Task: inverse folding
DNA sequence: CTGTATAGATCTACACTGTAGAACATGGCG
DNA sequence: CGCCATGTTCTACAGTGTAGATCTATACAG
């Protein structure tokens, strides 16, 4: 119980750090700022979070914990997979600046394993051969993380109603941009694009389940 | 010509910064360290690169410039696309720490546009409808960037020959990991996995070209 | 050759960073 | 009561980005 108390303090520090990063950006996330928010001296954080690097690792843990409830086991495999994917993207919008940490830092915490396990389970239920499961998991998680980050980090160029603009920025050497000037002038619908990408990946997944495979996986190897 | 001189100095600074980051990591990339490598006082960098943020932007420019030669226009559309993708992954291995900047910072420089344009061109040549081209470009570039980063940043958990280990790390609540313990014990072949992902994306692309579409795009809209 | 303008490099200084190390308080347990 | 462990604070140090003033060297006008 006393141990739960010390863990609670650590949580308090991490949530304060996460809130601060979300409000003022990753650059503003200093030990002193976090300490001030908790109402304590900077050095008081160290027994709880180790050092700043460990604090950042703690933040990705927080993010993963926030994502974990989406990994329920109810429903068809593709609705489960879609739920996890959408939760991943929603997380990016909720934590625009800290989301980068998910891609920058390797996470092998229990929560991370549980999340991956949920995706593994969905792919197995889909009938994907075991040898392909880890690879396809990486494919969809890369899409979810990469797309969401690109969206909130400002990669993905904005549409410019004045056509040819981007083509001219390249010194005129952008013929395909010119050919696409009509569609490039229209603003993108990121919600729809994310779903479309997800649809494509679903087709990829089903394309890998052997035709004779049984629907339920308890029929064994 | 004198103006070329000042540009040359900027280039010299940026290449020094890139080399330093590659050798000692992004954290070691300080203005003072870059200045020392160039053989100059820290403040002497500022007229050339603006400030540290702009210097980092300059680094992604350097990376893109290094990637650009892969965007040739020769060959079938799918060999061109594969060439760009492989170049993107090779770039990640050459610049393990700085590669993150490509995902973290939006790039709308001329070189970036030229690169995207090459992908647009390949997709158009494949017969993809114009409305789908930008989306599919983002899909493949997200895969290339995200996968390569995941690889060099240490996301993607390593294989552990001692089975069940990762499942146990999750408190036993990782049934799919247990079911997959055989395949999870084997080391992954990232080269093969990248190519497999690329194959999948190629199928996605061709699945979007209408059956009646002509092979050559100069036949018009 | 002299004087001057201009661009680049330097020096100093400031606020801020992460964190090591010592000192301090405060509670529980014998 | 003493003792110990745990959490916190204080002080200090090396290192960061960069503003502002100063210096230097080069190029050109007379």
Result:
């Amino acid at each position: 119980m006393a141990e739960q108390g010390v863990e609670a303090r650590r949580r308090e520090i991490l949530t304060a750090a996460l809130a601060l990063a979300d409000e003022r950006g990753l650059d503003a996330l200093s030990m002193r700022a976090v300490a001030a928010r908790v109402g304590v001296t900077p050095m008081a954080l160290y027994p709880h979070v180790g050092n700043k690097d460990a604090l950042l690792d703690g933040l990705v843990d927080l993010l993963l914990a926030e994502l974990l409830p989406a990994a329920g086991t109810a429903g068809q495999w593709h609705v489960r997979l879609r739920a996890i994917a959408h939760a991943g993207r929603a997380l990016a919008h909720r934590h625009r600046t800290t989301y980068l940490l998910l891609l920058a830092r390797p996470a092998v915490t229990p929560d991370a394993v549980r999340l991956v396990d949920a995706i593994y389970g969905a792919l197995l239920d889909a009938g994907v051969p075991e040898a392909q499961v880890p690879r396809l998991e990486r494919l969809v998680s890369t899409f979810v993380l990469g797309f969401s980050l690109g969206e909130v980090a400002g990669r993905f160029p904005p549409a410019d109603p004045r056509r040819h603009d981007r083509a001219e920025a390249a010194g005129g050497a952008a013929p395909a941009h010119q050919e696409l000037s009509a569609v490039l002038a229209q603003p993108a619908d990121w919600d729809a694009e994310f779903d479309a990408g997800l649809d494509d990946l679903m087709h990829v997944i089903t394309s890998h389940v052997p035709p004779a495979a049984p629907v339920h996986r308890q029929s064994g190897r």
Q: What stands out?
A: The mean pLDDT of chain B is 91. Residues 59-156+189-219 of chain B form a domain with the Tetracycline Repressor; domain 2 fold (CATH 1.10.357.10). The CA atoms of residues 12 and 38 of chain B lie 8 Å apart.
